[in-house]
Amino acid sequence: MDTIKRTKILKAAIKVFAKEGFFNAKVEQIAKLAGVATGTTYLYFENKDDILISIFEEEMIPIIESMRIALSKKETAREKITEIIFNHLEMIQEKPDMAQLLEIELRQSSKFIHGYQGTKFKEYLDIMAAAFAEGQENGEFREDIQPTIFKQILFGAIDQLSINWTLSKSKKIDLKLCADQIAAVMLDGITNK
């Protein structure tokens, strides 16, 4: 299989899905933008769902790698969690086509919702849990909260903000500036000290 053609198809699909929406996008449109025949697309992917899930899995690789590098430069667990939030929001803000794909279109795929095994997504969430567990071990965070619960809550918070931003027409909020506030709510709560 020609990896260059496969990559072209995936890059074209990101643009088509972001512009047309998952349901309205046609494999023919993706093939045309990629500069390949429609039949060639089916040599690499079963259907639109397969293309969408492949984009997600492959795009998560550099996102996860970038996050790991950024976290290696942080000392405390709190700094690491704030960096996780910042990295996620920065990616959403700086890659609007990917934001549309990850935050909106991916959720339109029944194959993703019902059949995705979640290897890269699980890895992404596990980075959050590991940072929290590290904070528990060194006394930064309470020990009575399960890291698996924390990672779901943290992802839910940044994901909801990301969805709202992606759907917003004005995009007035600078997402990257929200990272410290989200970290403060997540790690300090909202009570006065």
Explain this structure.
The model has no long low-confidence stretch (mean pLDDT 89). The chain has ten helices and no strands. It folds into two domains: 1-45, Homeodomain-like (Arc Repressor Mutant, subunit A, Orthogonal Bundle), CATH 1.10.10.60; 53-188, Tetracycline Repressor, domain 2, CATH 1.10.357. It starts with a helix and ends in a 5-residue tail after the last helix. It has helices spanning 3-20, 27-34, 38-44, 48-72, 77-94, 96-103, 110-115, 119-137, 147-167, 179-188. Helix 5 (77-94) crosses helix 6 and helix 8 (119-137) crosses helix 9. The chain is mainly alpha-helical and 193 residues long. 73% of the residues lie in helices and 0% in strands.
